[in-house]
Structure formats: structure tokens, C-alpha cells
Amino acid sequence: MRSIPWNRLRGRNNEGVLVLSIIAFSIAVGISTPSFWGWPTLLDLGTNSLINLVFAMGVLLVIVSGGIDVSFMAIGIFSGYAVIILPNATGFGADYAVVGFATAALIGLGLGLLNAIAIAGLRIPTLIATLGTQGIIRGAMLLWVGSKVIPHYPAGLDRLGNDYLVTVHSGAAATRLSVLIIPAAVICVLVGLLLRYTMIGRSIYAIGGDEESARRAGIPVTGIKVFIYVFVGVLAGIAGMMHVTRVGLANPYELVGGELDVIAAVVLGGASIFGGSGSVTGTVLGVVLITLVKNSLILLGVPSTWQRFAVGLLLLVGITAQALSARLRRRGPALAPGVAA
């Protein structure tokens, strides 16, 4: 019986390593806390992952293209909060959730265009540009849009927030899987198709691999970058709308500050911080791993402050592994003649 090569088992973007890590971590937590095993844990994992999953699809495109975005959470909460403000003030779209999500996507598109102008038009480094737009967006929301927590929702969004695909009862408690997992899954599939089968997707990989070479090959680098940050804005708007719908509370002080979880998930999923590589499958597994670690720490009674430590450590491990792998690839050709001799 032939053994499976390690490189094949590992996967192109370390998907195999992530699967093994998730299994090993689950076994360890399950041994410590037997209540971990069961449908409630799986449903909690799905529901708690879906918002970051949508954010991560946008961040994946940015990192694959060789950039870094820290404004997506601000775009998300701005879009979601503004959509709640609008129906409460005008009655517009009060009975139709699809109108709310479409409006959030349009707001996200406009805010993403700010990043596109700064990065593709003015050629400001991505981290600096998105740090600036994050501050502008958050400040504008608190100054002019609103800064109060809103507990009252339009009827359509309220119904959607209380709609579930699956409900599992365990004694007096009930665990539910939100119906919002469906649009999150659809978005993942669409981004996967975009990256794998379209010219835009191949161009994103090419820009991340070597922007100057991509430009010389005839790829419209500026246009692709505009598409990336506008598309990320749309996804962030949808994710922000999903967040306020699911939690049943529009709080302008939420989401911002959670960028580390999403970026860590994308990097752990195999997206290179140097650009040029990454996959939807790896990103989904990265989000699941981060959510699993955070949920398990809560289940084990570990103080919440340790969650940030754990996520930061995982991010550092992922970046270190990428740096070491890149160094070994650079050394490989130089060492080969000596080995042959």
C-alpha cells in the first residue's frame, strides 16, 4: 500500500494541517469537557462563525493581492447601523429584509470606494490608507449618523433575526443555527468561483505575486485594485447587516477591534502575507479554528482576556510559518548543487 505524500496531505494552502489541528484540538477539549461533544457545540460553531466568515472572504482578496485592510469592521458596523437608523426614521424598507441588505451593500460599496481611491488612485500603502479610512468612517458614524444603541428593529429584519434552520434542545436550553448561514455559504462559494475560474481572480493572484510583472503582462492593476476594495466594502456591508440582524441590537461601538480574529483566520488558512496565495477552503477552516478556540476557552471557564492572547499567538505562529517556508524556498536552489556534489 503506497503512503500518501506529506505535501499532498498538507494541501496547497495547508488545509490538511488545519483539519488535523481542528480534530486534535477538539479531541483535547472533549477529553477535558465531555459536554463539548454534541450537536449544540456544532451549531454554536456555525452560528458564531458566519459573520467573520463573510468578513474573511473580503480580507482574503486583499491579502492575496498583497495588501492589508483594517477598515472592514468599521465599514460593516457603519453599514448595519445606518440601515437600522434609516427605517426607524423614515419607515423605508421596514417590512423587507432584502431591502435592508441591499442598502447595506450599497453603503459598503461607497465606503469601499474610499479605500479604492486612496490605494489604487493615490497609491497610499494599504495599511496606512485603511487605518485612515477606519478612523474617518468610525468618527463620521459617531458624530453624524448616531451613537445610541438601538434595540428596536424593522419588522422584516426582526423576523429574519429570529429565524433558524435547526434547533436542538438539551434539557431546558436550546441551541440554534441561524438561517443567515445560507447567505454566508453562498458568498463563500461565489468568492471561490471568482478566484478560481475568472480572469479577475487570476489577476488578483498575479498582482499579489508581483505587481510590476502583472502590469507588464497587461493586467489592469489599478482597475483590479478598485474592484477588490469596492467588493470588500460590499461584503463588509453585508456582514455588518448580518451582525446587527443576528444579535438583535444595533450598537455603533461593536465590531471595530475584532479585525485581529479575521486577519488571523485568513493567514492561518494559508493566505500569504506576502501576497499571491490563499484559498477559500483554507480561509473557512481558519475561521472555524479561531471560533473553535474562542468558544472552547469560554467552555473551559478561561477568562475572556485570554482569548486575545490565544488569537494573537495563533496569528504569530501562522506568520512565522510563512516566513520560514519562504526562506526555505529561497535557499532551495542555492543548496541543491552543493547537495548533489
Give the arrangement of secondary structure elements.
Blueprint lengths: L5 H5 L4 H18 L6 H26 L7 H19 L6 H25 L4 H20 L9 H7 L2 E7 L2 E6 L2 H17 L1 H11 L1 H6 L4 H27 L11 H10 L11 H20 L5 H36 L1
Antiparallel strand pairs: 1-2
Helix pairs in contact: 2-13, 3-8, 3-11, 3-12, 3-13, 4-5, 4-6, 4-11, 5-6, 5-11, 7-11, 8-9, 9-11, 12-13, 12-14, 13-14
Question: Could you explain how this protein is built, in words?
Answer:
The protein has helices at residues 6-10, 15-32, 39-64, 72-90, 97-121, 126-145, 155-161, 181-197, 199-209, 211-216, 221-247, 259-268, 280-299, 305-340, and strands spanning 164-170, 173-178. Residues 333-341 have low confidence and may be disordered. The protein is mainly α. The protein has a two-stranded antiparallel sheet. The protein is globular and about 65 Å long. The relative contact order is 0.18. 72% of the residues lie in helices and 4% in strands. It contains 14 helices and two strands. The two termini are 33 Å apart.
> SSE order in H/E notation?
HHHHHHHEEHHHHHHH
Low-confidence stretches: 333-341
Write down the overall mean pLDDT: 86
Helix content: over 70%
Oligomerization status of the protein chains = single chain
Number of strands: 2
How much of the residues is beta strand, in percent? Answer: under 5%
Report strand order across the widest sheet. Answer: 1-2
Question: What is the global morphology?
Answer: globular
- What structural class do the secondary elements suggest? mainly alpha
In brief:
The chain has helices at residues 6-10, 15-32, 39-64, 72-90, 97-121, 126-145, 155-161, 181-197, 199-209, 211-216, 221-247, 259-268, 280-299, 305-340; strands at residues 164-170, 173-178. The protein has a domain at 40-256. With 341 residues, it is mainly alpha-helical.
